[in-house]
């Protein structure tokens, strides 16, 4: 337990109020003889753990922003409700992190001022609720979106070195209040326990770089070429997805491939559409309210041409970039219609970019006819077949026979003993490690990973040697001339050693300084205790 506090300043009083939820001066605390008990220490430890827990969730929340548009689309398909769910995620997360951070800072300052850590019961309840909320969020993430755990592991390749430096800095600063508490406490067992835990934590942090790996720790001359950009449904942050405007905006972003999705209308016209229903990206509910829930393939081409495929983009604002569109772009977006595959092929041919597409829905009873109709449009379009990247797996052998020049892209990793060499693969970025990417590159296999929107993720894949990435943010990745960071191994080693040595010296200084302060304080505290004891005896007499 801590000795009675030796600080009676107004600052200490102001710190006590929000932490203990009581307006009580330090002098009154001293007359009460309040001390920091083991029970109070356990609540401080719980507070520290809650802070780390919420900080970990904030990290995850920032990481999964790369894929959050997919989550918004999923919610719309389930509930027909469009909302920027990233704000729903980030705002409560920021509140929880801020709350636990403020309480932790108050506790550390109180300890440095020698005040008792009497956490109010309201804060205790709120901290328990915080743990339950964050635990529920982590559980939901693990059940419904398990692939994001892979995203978190990949993110450590981009943030690992900096997280290590931040952790060392934070734990180093913690030495001051820890030393203050250790020199005030009377319990030898507690003192030894805290020292052992702190030393073990610092030793683990000092040696952590031995387990940190990142493809961006390399020499400058070893950096692979910048990955090519594949426009995911065009440039969906700048124009309505799967429209000709989106294709042209993607061309302006220097993409080399326009990635899209193809369906076939009831009268046999292939057209661009991702969802099986038309409700998200058209005004079908206003034009054909009784047929809005039907599959896209149930509409004929004449009906599809009556639909507005652009106004939803301005109304729902699927990305924040919609707000910054020019008046001309807004007008053009509002005039977009569903394009046919023939129109898209003509635009790709004129822009000299490739087109890669999936043919949906794969489980349709007339899927073979869809393949044949789509192939017929491709062959009649006059586009060079090497500019067509074929993704669908169904009836692939027929495609190879009818259009031998088409490039085939596989949505899987290569098998051992492949009959035909796999030259192009298209996979989620979570499904390939840096080592696999390097091996495929050595074997001259083109690797395209999707969907990559954040610069940190693009940097990691760039350093790994990926051939291309599918992205919603082509306008952002276009401007990147270099990975966010690139460190030679020798430089990183030097930073590691310098930071660890500097941290060690600061910790030693903190303990020595706090020991001197505690020796100076004890005589004054002893005289005060004697005086208070005499006054108390006189009052009892």
From TrEMBL:
<feature type="transmembrane region" description="Helical">
    <location>
        <begin position="85"/>
        <end position="113"/>
    </location>
</feature>
<feature type="transmembrane region" description="Helical">
    <location>
        <begin position="163"/>
        <end position="183"/>
    </location>
</feature>
<comment type="similarity">
    <text>Belongs to the glycerophosphoryl diester phosphodiesterase family.</text>
</comment>
<keyword id="KW-0325">Glycoprotein</keyword>
<protein>
    <submittedName>
        <fullName>GDPD2 inositolphosphodiesterase</fullName>
    </submittedName>
</protein>
<keyword id="KW-0812">Transmembrane</keyword>
<dbReference type="GO" id="GO:0006629">
    <property type="term" value="P:lipid metabolic process"/>
</dbReference>
<dbReference type="Pfam" id="PF03009">
    <property type="entry name" value="GDPD"/>
</dbReference>
<keyword id="KW-1133">Transmembrane helix</keyword>
<dbReference type="InterPro" id="IPR017946">
    <property type="entry name" value="PLC-like_Pdiesterase_TIM-brl"/>
</dbReference>
<dbReference type="GO" id="GO:0008889">
    <property type="term" value="F:glycerophosphodiester phosphodiesterase activity"/>
</dbReference>
<feature type="transmembrane region" description="Helical">
    <location>
        <begin position="493"/>
        <end position="513"/>
    </location>
</feature>
<feature type="transmembrane region" description="Helical">
    <location>
        <begin position="125"/>
        <end position="143"/>
    </location>
</feature>
<dbReference type="GO" id="GO:0005886">
    <property type="term" value="C:plasma membrane"/>
</dbReference>
<feature type="transmembrane region" description="Helical">
    <location>
        <begin position="190"/>
        <end position="212"/>
    </location>
</feature>
<feature type="domain" description="GP-PDE">
    <location>
        <begin position="227"/>
        <end position="481"/>
    </location>
</feature>
<feature type="transmembrane region" description="Helical">
    <location>
        <begin position="41"/>
        <end position="65"/>
    </location>
</feature>
<dbReference type="InterPro" id="IPR030395">
    <property type="entry name" value="GP_PDE_dom"/>
</dbReference>
<keyword id="KW-0472">Membrane</keyword>
<keyword id="KW-0378">Hydrolase</keyword>
């Amino acid at each position: 337990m801590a000795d009675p506090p030796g600080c009676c300043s107004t600052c200490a009083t102001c710190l006590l109020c929000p932490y203990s939820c009581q307006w009580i001066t330090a002098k009154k605390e001293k007359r009460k003889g309040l001390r920091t008990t083991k029970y109070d220490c356990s609540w401080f430890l719980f507070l520290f753990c809650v802070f780390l827990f919420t900080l970990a969730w904030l990290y995850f929340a920032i990481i999964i922003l790369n894929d959050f548009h997919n989550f918004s689309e999923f919610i719309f398909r389930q509930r027909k409700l469009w909302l920027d769910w990233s704000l729903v995620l980030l705002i409560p997360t920021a509140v929880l992190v801020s709350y636990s951070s403020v309480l932790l800072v108050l506790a550390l300052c109180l300890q440095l001022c020698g005040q008792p850590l009497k956490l109010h019961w309201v804060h205790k309840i709120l901290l328990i609720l915080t743990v339950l909320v964050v635990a529920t969020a982590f559980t939901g993430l693990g059940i419904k979106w398990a692939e994001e755990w892979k995203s978190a592991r990949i993110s450590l390749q981009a943030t690992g070195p900096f997280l290590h430096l931040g952790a060392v800095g934070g734990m180093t600063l913690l030495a001051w209040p820890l030393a203050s508490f250790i020199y005030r406490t009377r319990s030898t067992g507690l003192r030894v326990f805290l020292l052992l835990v702190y030393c073990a934590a610092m030793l683990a942090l000092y040696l952590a770089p031995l387990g940190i790996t990142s493809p961006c720790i390399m020499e400058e001359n070893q950096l692979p070429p910048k990955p090519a950009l594949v426009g995911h449904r065009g440039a969906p942050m700048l124009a309505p997805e799967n429209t000709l405007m989106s294709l042209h905006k993607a061309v302006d972003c220097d993409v080399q491939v326009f990635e899209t999705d193809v369906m076939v209308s009831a009268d046999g016209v292939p057209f661009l559409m991702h969802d099986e229903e038309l409700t998200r990206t058209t005004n079908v509910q206003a034009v054909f309210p009784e047929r809005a829930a039907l599959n896209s393939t149930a509409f004929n081409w004449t009906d599809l041409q009556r639909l507005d495929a652009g106004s939803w983009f301005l109304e729902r604002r699927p990305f924040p970039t919609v707000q910054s569109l020019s008046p001309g772009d807004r007008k053009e977006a509002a005039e977009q219609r569903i394009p046919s595959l023939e129109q898209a092929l003509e635009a790709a041919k004129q822009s000299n970019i490739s087109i890669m597409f999936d043919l949906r829905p794969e489980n349709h009873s007339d899927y073979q006819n869809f393949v044949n109709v789509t192939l017929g449009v491709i062959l009649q379009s006059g586009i060079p077949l090497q500019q067509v990247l074929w993704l669908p797996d169904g009836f692939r052998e027929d495609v190879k026979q009818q259009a031998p020049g088409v490039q085939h892209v596989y949505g899987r990793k290569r098998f051992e003993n492949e009959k035909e060499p796999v030259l192009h693969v298209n996979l989620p970025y979570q499904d390939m490690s840096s080592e696999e990417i390097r091996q495929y590159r050595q074997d001259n296999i083109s690797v395209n990973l999707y969907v990559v929107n954040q610069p940190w993720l693009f940097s990691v894949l760039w350093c790994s040697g990926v051939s291309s990435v599918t992205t919603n943010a082509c306008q952002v990745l276009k401007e990147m001339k270099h990975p966010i960071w690139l460190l030679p191994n020798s430089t990183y080693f030097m930073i590691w050693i310098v930071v660890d040595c500097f941290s060690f010296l600061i910790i030693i200084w903190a303990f020595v300084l706090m020991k001197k302060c505690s020796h100076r304080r004890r005589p004054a505290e002893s005289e005060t205790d004697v005086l208070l004891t005499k006054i108390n005896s006189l009052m009892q007499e």
